Amino acid sequence: MWYNNILETIGNTPLVKLNKIAKDIPATVLAKIETTNPGNSIKDRMALKMIEDAEKSGKLKPGGTIIEGTSGNTGMGLAIAAVIKGYKCIFTSTDKQSKEKFDALRAFGAEVIVCPTNVDPEDPRSYYSVSSRLEREVPNSWKPNQYDNLSNSQAHYETTGPEIWEQTEGKITHLIAGVGTGGTISGIAKYLKEKNPALQILGIDTYGSVFKKYKETGEFDKNEIYPYITEGIGEDFLPANVNFDLIDHFEKVTDKDAALMTREIARKEGIFAGNSTGSAIAGLLQMKDRFKEGDVVVIIFPDHGTRYLGKMYNDDWLRDRGFLKDEKLTARDIIRKKESPEIITIDVDKTVLEAINTIKSLNISQIPVTQQGMVIGKITESDILDALLENPSLKSQPVKNITTAPFPFVDLNASIDKISGMINKENIAVLVEDEQGKIEIITQYDIINAISG
């Protein structure tokens, strides 16, 4: 058997039992692995449905341009369908999304416009506003508007919901899913509650989003809104696809818990999933008292870990945000262990001869070059040697004539792995600013000294 095109492979994703990560949950916990869709996410389902419905209604015409505000996964689904069906794509997104997501969209020929995150949806710079403006300006274009287009939730009512019901033989008692556009959770919930009205639908929200408070109080509280790191869930407005009547409870999960749990899933279950999956599992563990023996809990795993390699799966990214503290040495530790923490610099107007004398007398191999106290470059033994071999009279000239690009700066929390990876033949040291604002230098010798000390 074969498929006529890649779109026919969307759906019928596996349901996999979670073991180690859910060991403290008395219920059976099953993951709906949506990464097996061709675009590696659940959004393929609704992207295709929105396009097909728009074709039927005449909103999307042959050779048209699809314009959408998307964090990446919906864009991927739309882009794949557009390749098969002959449409162009322009996507707007926010600067908090991972670079990998944008690169993946561009791989399918889509144009991606990156907009600022920290602006209101009504702001003309927001990714919602920019996509709406482009729809008005680009001829023969169509904006799916995944947030308010009810084909989104309908796709899950028609496919994901029935699959889960059949795969669990109707035994599912709880569904856990992140809530962003609301299409996934609302569409599945509608189908499952028609089958069993007692079934519990548990939505995962994030701090900085309005959903949980709105569900519990009916109040849209703008004070709840602030920037957050978690991708794919939460919102600062109420999409039409979020059916609050079908969602029994919202559980909020912090950025830190979501990020760290994302990694745990790979390490404990061998499933390479994205950031919102980390939120869902963290939420599951926070809600463990809701489940009892005999319950069957299904959790949606919406997308793949490859889109988060530069973020949740990157130790330095986590460390920079204070999410990860491990035993590895950092720049701070290396400075603390330095035998001579005082940095030696030379002013840009000093002569090359003075630089040579400084290097000789202090037995060092490189000096940062300063101008009015600011580091603007460096000179090394090899820089001086190369210059003098070419022109011996350079001795009396200012060091600015042979100054090269400065050593790179690293954060105090930068790991020893990151620092040692930056030090090589071309770049023999890094600089770091301590808590008092003083510049320190770290060389290969300092790293060796810190490890052996």
From TrEMBL:
The keyword Nucleotide-binding does not apply. One of its GO terms (biological process) is cysteine biosynthetic process from serine. It comes from Mucilaginibacter auburnensis. Residues 339-396 form the CBS domain. Gene3D superfamilies: 3.40.50.1100, CBS-domain. Keywords: CBS domain, Pyridoxal phosphate. Belongs to the cysteine synthase/cystathionine beta-synthase family. InterPro entries: CBS_dom, CBS_dom_sf, Cys_Synth/Cystath_Beta-Synth, P-phosphate_BS, TrpB-like_PALP, TrpB-like_PALP_sf. Its cofactor is pyridoxal 5'-phosphate. Pfam families: CBS (PF00571), PALP (PF00291). GO terms for molecular function: transferase activity, transferring alkyl or aryl (other than methyl) groups. It comes from the Bacteria. This is Cystathionine beta-synthase.
